Amino acid sequence: MQVGSLEISQFDSNEIQLRQGGKEWHIDVTHLLRVNDCYGNFTGDGSEQICTGPAKSPCPACPRMVGVIAWDQHRQKLYFVIGSGGWQARPWTVFNYNLVTRHVTRFSSTFATNIGQGEVSSSGQYLAYVQVFHCSPGMQGHCPSDAIEVMDLWNRRIAHPPYGLTPNDGVIRIQQLTWSSPSVVNYSGSVDPFNPEPQPDRPTKGSLDMRTLEFR
User: Fold this and answer.
1) Is the dihedral of CA 29, 110, 54, 156 positive or negative?
2) Which residues of 14-152 form beta strands (DSSP E)?
3) For an engineered disulfide with 174, which of 88, 98, 189, 209 has Cβ 3.0 to 4.6 Å away?
4) CB atoms near residue 63 (< 10 Å)
């Protein structure tokens, strides 16, 4: 997997391997999730925790799913997520790895079935990413749309933009995020109509201005 000048030669539940300019990096992710992150089937009540001990101590036995979401070439930082538990709305924790200092930084957690593409703003303050939610045949097409969440990396806060990114007659699938300015992220994708008969998807696009969002 190639992102800009960075080659991600491997990523799995134990390690992320990187190459760039003849150098290599190995990120051990086995100790990054904590006791209070890890559940066998996430319920939120603490009854299915896998590890015991202080809440912020490492939980290496935690089953993990790892995803690489963004590469900040200017600052040489790779953003990735680690998820655990559940299968419809599991907790994901956001991290970055600084190739210069070889240091991992932990940010906030979020909930989704999966975390898709992310993009870092030119200032390095914001990380926008796509939240993907569970959809099954039993939902008969009435599946949750993808959502965009934005993390303020400087202040460690998250904004949940309104879900009404598209008309309410279809499901949006977000395919691309791009920053047009330090505070405006553009999105584009397609809308899958709510219709049992096959119909072509239609394109959709829009933008989110960080100055209008409420970060918490």
Assistant:
1) positive
2) 15-20, 23-28, 65-72, 77-83, 90-98, 103-112, 114-120, 126-132, 147-152
3) 189
4) 14
Tokens at residue 160, please? Answer: 């949940």
Tell me how far apart the alpha carbons of residues 80 and 53 are, in angstroms, rounded to a whole number.
26
In terms of Cβ atoms closer than 10 Å to its own Cβ (0-12, 13-18, 19+), residue 156 is exposed
Give me the amino acid identity at 3. V
Q: How far apart are CA 156 and CA 16, in angstroms?
A: 24
End-to-end CA distance of the chain: 34
Contacts of 35 (CB under 8 A, 6+ apart): 49, 51, 52, 53, 54, 55, 56, 57, 58, 59
Query: What does each C-alpha distance from 203 to 128, 131, 189, 191, 200 come to in angstroms?
Result: 20, 19, 6, 6, 10
Per-residue pLDDT of the chain in tens (216 residues, 90 and over written 9): 898 889 999 889 999 999 999 999 999 999 999 988 886 655 555 456 788 889 899 999 988 899 999 999 999 999 999 998 766 678 899 999 999 999 999 999 888 888 999 999 999 999 999 998 877 655 555 677 888 999 999 999 999 876 556 555 677 889 999 999 999 999 999 887 766 565 667 888 999 999 999 999
